[in-house]
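Lactoylglutathione lyase, Nonomuraea glycinis. Tokens?
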Amino acid sequence: MSTLQTGHVGLNVTDLARSIAFYRQVFNFEIFGEQTEGTRKFAFLGRDGTLQVTLWQQSEGAFATGLPGLHHLSFQVPDLEAVQRAEAVLRELGAELVYDGIVPHGEGASSGGVFFTDPDGIRLEIYAPAGADAAPAPTQGAPTCGFF
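Tokens:
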């Protein structure tokens, strides 16, 4: 294996239509394929011809942060302005923000972003590699994205 990179991420959701709407609004994803009828509902979402997230309606309840598994899903954008635009959309949607706005990944770090949850409580992050050092880090002694 000479090259390896992460492919798409599959997420279990409770309401496919609601999740499709959320992910399309927040991330500007296109629908590459979907099945919205019957008992096996799913959607393939991505941008620029690249599949990034698959949604599978096969869950009940909310994302369990206390169990082993996915901690959070992170998306990098080119700059802080893109993070600010995403934050505005999240606020319009009434999404749950973990911190009050954009925060750095750690004390003195320039990278950082906005941390939030989707409608099922799945923890998400949109960050930029630089420009977030103006705000104080909310978690001392550990990466911000590790403990929320």
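Residues 1-58 form a domain with the 2,3-Dihydroxybiphenyl 1,2-Dioxygenase; domain 1 fold (CATH 3.10.180.10).
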